[in-house]
Amino acid sequence: MLEKAPVTLWRRWMSKMNEKEKLKKPPLYRFAAFILMLFPYIFLYAGIQVIASFAVEIMEDLTIKEASLSFLSSLGTLSMAVTSAAAGGLGNRYGGKRTVILGLVIMAVSGALYLGNAGSIFGLYIIRSIQGAGTGVVCACLMALVSAWFPKKERGTAQGALGSFYGASISLVTIYALSCRKRGLAWNGAIGQMLLCGGIFLAVLIAFFYKDIEKTYGVSVIDEVIATDVGKSDTSDLMVHKGNTFDKPCNWKESLTFPGFWLIGLLLFFNGACTYGIGFIIPLFFTYCGFNSDSAASIMSVGTLSSIFFALFGGFISDHFFRSRRCEVGLISFGGAMTLFFIIVRIGGLLSAAGLTICYFLAYGMMYLSVGPLWCLPAEMVSSEFASRSMGAALLFSGIGGFVMTNLFGIIIQISGAGTGMYSLVGCMMIVFISFFLIRKVYRI
């Protein structure tokens, strides 16, 4: 005990010295960082959805069927998934700012290529893959940067606020597609202009106004520089598993042998199937119910706006009501979503446009109730230093799920109709629900 006394006194003195250098509260710049990341977030998911928004025109011009269209649409998801796995490492090495700018430039290049290609499906496959690669580079860094700038007690709300604008991106690109149709603009011209102009503008915006947290504070997450009581740090690299405390994974070797990594992978695979699949299936299902393209677009543009309110509310209750636990909100979210979408499948054809809009508004909103808590899991189940790479792996699982299942949905719809495709979507939601239940039971997070 006497030998350890000087060491203990030294640590206490150093702790007091370090505490003076720490912030008393999170910096206000985190809100500026959030807004700067929000614009690319809306842009990249509008780009992912844009093929589905021009589905009818593309199928007519290229004389292709639903399975070929789903493959074209999902190619962006696949290349996004593959590049997102590497993007976490790029962000750590070169900084999030440079990595996001690189991804936006790649998306702008794909936009220029769309403008020069109107009749070749194979050319579109290549262009869509390039677009997805840029999307993956942006997305992996973007979500990790939002988590880095917000402390743990605000992280669910921040990710929920970010995710809430996924629905807004769908609505905006749907409205954009309607506007382009009315102006007689060709689908490839509309897509190319959106990606080229948007990518260049956002790259310039990030270059001038965003600053990396590492260069500003010298830390990887803001919790590390906020003053906390001893023993109450939000950056603890320990987790409780069935009553036992253990170290969170801090590298690939530990992650790949960690059962929780694969449980989250299963959850994200089928969540990706739901997220990307719904944008592909719903327009076809509404047409199957007897609505024309304009009516279906109107229902979607209004219904997807529900994500703004539901995602914000889900993140807030995760942070404040459930005290930063994530799975409770996930269970409520997907339990409600699969029930409501099942009802839509059963009675969708009997409803008016107004009635179907209300049902879709509620069902879509319930699915997005958990978007904030869900995307906190990849960062919070590993050490803070490994969070960026973990987010890249999470996007890989999600993107592959979107690619595989969207293609499967296309085959199912071509063989059995859009109604069967919707039942398959509900089945994916059930698997996400079960995954949340298992993670909550085993890891209490």
From TrEMBL:
Which cellular component terms (GO) are annotated to the entry? plasma membrane
State the name under which the record lists this protein.
MFS transporter
Which source organism does the UniProt entry give?
A: Hungatella hathewayi
Q: Which keywords accompany this UniProt record?
A: Membrane, Transmembrane, Transmembrane helix, Transport
The answer to keyword NAD applying to this record is no
- Residue spans crossing the bilayer: 28-48, 68-88, 100-127, 133-150, 162-179, 185-210, 261-286, 298-317, 329-347, 353-371, 392-415, 421-439
**Membrane topology field:** Multi-pass membrane protein
Q: Which GO terms describe its molecular function?
A: glucose 6-phosphate:phosphate antiporter activity
According to the entry, every stretch annotated as the Major facilitator superfamily (MFS) profile domain falls at 33-445
| Any Gene Ontology biological process | phosphate ion transmembrane transport
Domain of life the protein comes from: Bacteria
Cellular compartment(s): Cell membrane
